[in-house]
Amino acid sequence: MVFLENWFGLLLIFHLLVTFVLVGSMTHQMFVVRDYLRGKFGRQKRDFYYLKVVLWSYLICYVIGALIYPAFRIHMRHEYFDVAANNLGWATGLFEVKEHWGAVLMALLLALYCLRRSFQPSEDKAKLYFYLPMLLVVNLTVWYKVIVGVYLTSLKGSW
């Protein structure tokens, strides 16, 4: 018996639902921040609110992912991806890259939150030159993780 094996399906669905919240709030935040480039700063509070939602939803996704990882490692990775007959060893590598970027992303999100908390975009426009690229990297990384996660799940939906 693997840790939380019986709850794998439910936890995976919850992981997906929280991911929807993460991607939605992150994408909406990018639209708000896009207005900063146009000189429109009317939705600064909304930007900070979305960033908090992104941070918390990512943290929840991360914890749920850690809870389902033992069952995934035994039943999906060991029994399906790593079996030579399936010729899916590359999927394990893709998953590992995804997870490594996930750890980097946690640090980036914390740095992004601290940076955003330290300034008002309408008053300190110099910090936007750090904030905007960091936000773009966070968005691209989350989208990468979502696309890879969905793709790997589609290779074998359940055991």
Could you estimate the helical fraction of the residues in percent?
over 70%
Any idea how many domains? 1
Q: In what range is the share of β-strand residues?
A: under 5%
As residue ranges, the low-confidence spans are none
Q: In this structure, how is the largest beta sheet organized?
A: none
Specify the number of helices. Answer: 4
The overall pLDDT, averaged over residues, is: 89
Overall, the morphology is elongated
Radius of gyration: 18 Å
Distance between the termini: 14 Å
Structural class of the secondary structure composition? mainly alpha
H/E element sequence: HHHH
Give the number of DSSP strands: 0
Describe the structure in your own words.
- The protein has 159 residues and is mostly helical.
- It has one domain.
- 79% of the residues lie in helices and 0% in strands.
- It is built from four helices and no strands.
- Helix 1 (8-37) packs antiparallel against helix 2 (44-81), helix 1 packs antiparallel against helix 4 (128-155) and helix 3 packs antiparallel against helix 4.
Record the SSE blueprint.
Layout: H1 8-37, H2 44-81, H3 89-117, H4 128-155
Helix pairs in contact: 1-2, 1-4, 2-3, 3-4
What keywords describe this structure?
159 residues; mainly alpha
In short:
The chain has 159 residues and is mainly α. It has helices at 8-37, 44-81, 89-117, 128-155. It has one domain (5-155).
